[in-house]
Specification:
Blueprint: H1 12-19, H2 22-25, E1 44-50, H3 55-72, E2 75-81, H4 86-96, E3 102-106, H5 109-113, H6 121-131, H7 136-142, E4 143-144, E5 147-148, E6 151-156, E7 159-163, H8 164-169, H9 178-188, H10 205-216, H11 234-249, H12 262-268, E8 274-277, H13 280-288, H14 290-294, E9 296-299, E10 303-304, E11 307-308, E12 313-319, H15 326-336, H16 339-348, E13 353-354, H17 393-400, H18 403-412, H19 417-432
Parallel strand pairs: 1-2, 1-3
Antiparallel strand pairs: 3-12, 4-5, 6-12, 6-13, 7-8, 7-9, 10-11
Helix pairs in contact: 3-16, 11-18, 12-13, 17-19, 18-19
Amino acid sequence: MAHGRKTRPIPRRQFLKLLTGAAGGATLLSWAPVVRAGTRTDKRVHLLQRAPFVPAGDKLMKQQAGEWGRANGVEVTIENVNIQDLQTRTASAIETKAGADIVQFMGNWAWLYAPALADMTKAAEAYQKQYGKYYPSIEQVSKVNGAWRALPYSYVSNVVVYRRDWLAEVGHPEPKTWDEWREAGKKLKPKNRPIGLAVSHAVGDGPGNCYPLFWSWGCKETEADGKTVAINSKETLDCVQWVVGFYKDALDDAALAYDDTSNNKNYLGGTVSMVINSPSVTVKAKEDFPDLYKQTWHVGFPAGPAGAAAWELNLSHGIMSYSKNRDAAEAFLLWLMEPKQYEAWMMACGGTNAGPTAYFEKAAVWTSEPILTALKDIPKTVRHYGYPGPATRAAAESVSKFIVVDMFAKACQGMAPKDAIAWAERELQGIYTQR
């Protein structure tokens, strides 16, 4: 499809030349087959990823993998695992130097595993010359100390998903600020229609729900240098005190124990009025709960005293340095990211996934339904974990240890907000002083 770009993409032949020499001199794009058609081969590519929330997208991706594999004489396996198990499997593969060739990363994980990852700089730079610069937030989490240790893949398009009918009933048809959501929640919770945000160790939703709120109060874990711990501030105290009230007034009482399926299940089950989630929950409503779908709408992230702050789950792919098939693995990833395959996958995912560059802002999925229009521009304003500092290994460790999430949770469970902040400060100092 046409994207209205002012500069023409470079020819494929030239793009191929850009990639020749990476991964031991092998040509990385599938436009030139990895092995000659019809030749018997032992080449295999194994991709390990979190279980997708939209089955149609997963089905199409596996069909595409089979298509590329047959054309290139490579056996491609895509293995889905529970989101909570993905880091465990990754750590085990690194320890044993055996396992998947490609691992899907979430957020800052490339910083955690950088020493065990192949350098994908030539592929990343060539892709950008063809399809535009990666968004800054996904570059921050994929480029480690100047080298691309993961190839950016997608944003999971998190957005506020809510019941328009229930919100209209209480006089708040489209809340735009956190305070407005709290006021609406005060009226909804007594009706057994609370707000369903995770303040828990849900791997994606815990940080994904808490950090936008944290940032919208002007809070930060460190200064811009990424070293000086700065969480103990007036802004953080105001925020934590507000969250305690928000939990009592508006949140689902079970929010402290949510896993990554809880908000979806609760929204679809009609027990919560709002979630922050990808459109996967909307896709499911459309398929199985048409009456609910008719009352569902999307809006952007709420604003706090410091404005609105967006967070999207960055997905990227890292190739393990122990892999014996790095050339084929990289070729497969680049082929998946070509617009023909990628935009078909975006459509199958129903708006759940956005592209890593502005090239995909005009993809057909965003105009396929009015409910999706709020999503296409969100990647422009996304912040990364560690903001306003760089997305370092320490920032990734902080998220993996749920420091900000647990600060909120401890206060909601009765710890004095100042004590919860002091605890978080000590934890962060322990993380950042080791780097």
